[in-house]
Design a protein that fits this description.
TIM Barrel, 6-stranded parallel beta sheet, 22 strands, globular
């Protein structure tokens, strides 16, 4: 047997029970899903958030599994998506093509002669037949597993460096490739498109506009955005593009003191949200790549400290309370699906199978649960609630509805509240712990004047709390 056949034989033994239970078709090229389609995603009526097609709120809680298609076998795909479902994630961001010479774990090349206009496909999708199962069949399998676990897959058609470095992708090739993707996945309800891919939006705009327009024109019911370079935003270059349904920014991996870029928001990712929500037409926005848990400050210097769970919590609450439609988490090992024997990037030493259980990954669900506990679609950001806003890590951010208000502190500093911003003569005050989702009731207080609330613990980075005020 050759190496690919060895992979297949070994995996077939472990997968036989899976096929028997799930009835996954191995012989039909475009097999009908055995799972009920996920509801299509839409933009809410107020243009700030997402809903499912039946009008229910959809809070985007994403994970960056960028190299899933290329580096995970079917067993790994099953393990990863099941874990992310259990941890409350409902979106996974992946690259369809990391490079134009992309080859998956089974040795299947994605393209003919590294030409994006010529995807390499075979007849049939029988996993046990080497001649049938191809790169795109593995993508199909992954999408099925994601759907089974209630997860939408946000797919980058071709990573930005393939366009920005050299002449690997022409506009004409990009259009043909986007047509292939649109046709192959036109019936998929669990696909979101991330055009670009860690790239400067003001460069090669003809190609990015061509990809975006082709995808949106052919599949108008699938949402499309642009994943930009660090500390930039899709709104910088594509806000008014007809193919762009919502904005995405990458708040990046540098500390305040490491960022010397003029005009940069630095670590203040909430400022992207505040700016985007002033633009016309109104579109949802979210942080699609904050600092990854377990990655060095500044990204490239492996001697620097690593970003921690508290940092990814801070980025999440800051941006969401500022009005974002969701948030994407990331971990250094998981985003590169680091396996034994892989060449590490960014100093990573942990296997993805271990890193999926990192503290931050397990804590992300608490922000989703908190936001969906209250009337979500009426929610607005409102900094007038906070009497002592602060700056940098001391910044306090607030959001509210008619009968509730939420204020977040990253450092456990005292929160001074301008009362009377929500309904009622009295309100119930409660502390919410972002680390474990537990609540501690403070009491009932008058809803007038300025009132101070002091979290437990000493004032320090990572002693974060949410103050919940609800109308009595």
């Amino acid at each position: 047997m050759n190496q690919k056949q060895n992979y297949i034989y070994a995996f077939f033994i472990s997968c036989s029970l899976f096929f028997a239970v799930c009835g996954y078709s191995q012989t039909t090229k475009k097999a009908k899903s055995v799972n009920k389609d996920l509801l299509k995603l839409k933009i809410s009526k107020n243009q700030h958030y997402f809903t499912t097609e039946d009008g229910k709120p959809f809070f985007w809680l994403g994970d960056t599994g960028w190299l899933t298609f290329g580096k995970l076998d079917r067993e790994g795909v099953d393990k990863y998506f099941q874990d992310r479902k259990e941890k409350g994630f409902n979106v996974v961001q992946v690259m369809v093509l990391h490079n134009i010479n992309a080859v998956n774990v089974y040795g299947d090349a994605a393209l003919i002669n590294e030409d994006v206009s010529k995807p390499l496909t075979t007849t049939g999708n029988n996993f046990r037949n080497v001649a049938e199962y191809d790169y795109w069949d593995h993508v199909d399998y992954t999408l099925e597993v994601a759907q089974k676990n209630g997860i939408y897959v946000a797919m980058v058609p071709v990573w930005g460096t393939n366009v920005s470095k050299g002449d690997k992708v022409s506009k004409e090739q990009a259009i043909q490739y986007a047509k292939f993707l649109a046709e192959r996945y036109k019936n998929r309800t669990n696909i979101i498109w991330l055009n670009g891919g860690d790239t400067h939006g003001n460069e090669f705009k003809d190609i990015w506009n061509a990809i975006g327009s082709t995808l949106k024109t052919n599949n108008p019911n699938q949402l499309v955005t642009f994943h930009p370079f660090g500390r930039t935003d899709s709104s910088d270059d594509y806000h008014t593009a007809t193919w762009l349904d919502f904005n995405m920014f990458q708040s990046g991996h540098r500390r305040y003191d490491q960022d010397t870029l003029s005009g940069s928001f630095k670590e203040d990712n909430y400022k992207f949200v505040q700016r985007d929500l002033t633009l016309k037409p109104t579109k949802p926005t979210l942080d699609g790549e904050p600092s990854y848990e377990g990655i060095p400050h500044g990204l490239h210097d492996t001697l620097q400290p690593l970003w921690k769970a508290s940092d990814v919590r801070r980025y999440g609450y800051w941006s969401v309370f500022a009005g974002a439609a969701g948030y994407t988490y990331g971990h250094n090992a998981v985003m590169q699906m680091f396996r034994k024997g892989d060449k590490p990037a960014y100093g990573n030493k942990e296997l993805w199978t271990s890193a999926i259980n990192a503290s931050g990954a397990g804590q992300m669900v608490y922000i989703k649960k908190l936001m969906l506990e209250f009337p979500y679609l009426e929610r607005v950001p409102d900094q007038s609630i906070v009497a002592n806003q602060g700056e940098k890590y001391d910044y306090l951010v607030a959001t509210r509805g008619k009968n509730y208000a939420l204020i977040y502190t990253y450092t456990g500093r005292k929160i001074a509240v301008n009362m009377g911003k929500i309904a009622g003569d009295k309100v119930t005050a409660t502390w919410y712990n972002p680390r474990n989702g537990q609540k501690t009731k403070i009491g009932i207080v008058a809803n007038k004047g300025v009132r101070e609330f002091q979290p437990t613990g000493k004032k320090e980075d990572g002693n974060d709390w949410v103050l919940i005020l609800t109308s009595k």
